[in-house]
């Protein structure tokens, strides 16, 4: 852990680092490839909507049911004539979901299941879910997502600038698309828990992005007053200085989510835990990736299109070419926290030339200090 802390301190002070911004085209390509795969999976396989969105019935068997999941699925499909989803719960009971049935059909299926599963019909709990409730949940989720994105863009545009707001918006869409695409490819059921998970990951993704943007905003104050670093180089420094913090935050958040996904969902067989934890797990990982590899490099791309940043880059390149021709060692491209105190800042054009030769020293203000007390002559 001490080595990790030392690495974090060296990254923060710019002693070491990786050029994320320079290799941004590679990260863009990887993100585009993953996003296209997610969209294709979504278009081909589609989302497996839960019973809450389609309407139907949910049957819960008593504990320690003797039949297997496969047998229960076969019995449920034979009794209803519809596809059934069977989940084994942690207490030994089973959760059987059948979409597109009404109350009369539900009672008939319940009686047939009691015979096939060899349990009392009164011990099978049946719940009917109407499709209108699912439509209301979906509409509220879309409204919440739209309001959230609008407010985030407005806030970031005010607190930072519109380029950062645009980059954060692209990163959020990137995270949502990948998460939804993974759901389509894996075939997990989309439930209200999934919606909760999707809305939750937006906050985590935005948190890492704002941390990097805040560092970038602080380090680019007075950037045009110096000729040592371009905007892209300072953006890269911001990523490196917050890299360990972002990794630590993501790992700490992923560990309990992984426990929910692999232990809660896999071992205990809890369906709702699967729905929430998968969206959180994929979303957190995608959010950390987009904050480092997408959002900040995209801001650097947008900023370096400005005339001021283009002029700054030309001055920086000219100064480095001049230093190289003079045989001077290259400067370490690590910006200080404040540019106002930079020794290499551009000097004003009317700066007076340096005086060569001896110069008169100002009279000492402590003249007479150390003399014995008494009247001066």
Automatic annotation (TrEMBL):
Gene3D superfamilies: Multidrug efflux transporter AcrB transmembrane domain (1.20.1640.10). Residues 339-350 have a biased composition (Acidic residues). One of its GO terms (molecular function) is protein-transporting ATPase activity. The chain crosses the membrane at residues 26-44, 141-158, 165-188, 194-216, 247-270, 276-300. Keywords: Cell membrane, Membrane, Protein transport, Translocation, Transmembrane, Transmembrane helix, Transport. The keyword Transport applies. GO terms for biological process: intracellular protein transmembrane transport; protein targeting; protein transport by the Sec complex. InterPro entries: SecD/SecF_arch_bac, SecD/SecF_bac, SecD/SecF_CS, SecD_SecF_C, SecD_SecF_C_bact, SecF_bac. It is found in: Cell membrane. Part of the Sec protein translocase complex. Interacts with the SecYEG preprotein conducting channel. SecDF uses the proton motive force (PMF) to complete protein translocation after the ATP-dependent function of SecA. Forms a complex with SecD. Part of the essential Sec protein translocation apparatus which comprises SecA, SecYEG and auxiliary proteins SecDF. Other proteins may also be involved. This is Protein-export membrane protein SecF. It comes from Streptomyces griseoviridis. The lineage of its organism: Bacteria, Bacillati, Actinomycetota, Actinomycetes, Kitasatosporales. The gene is secF.
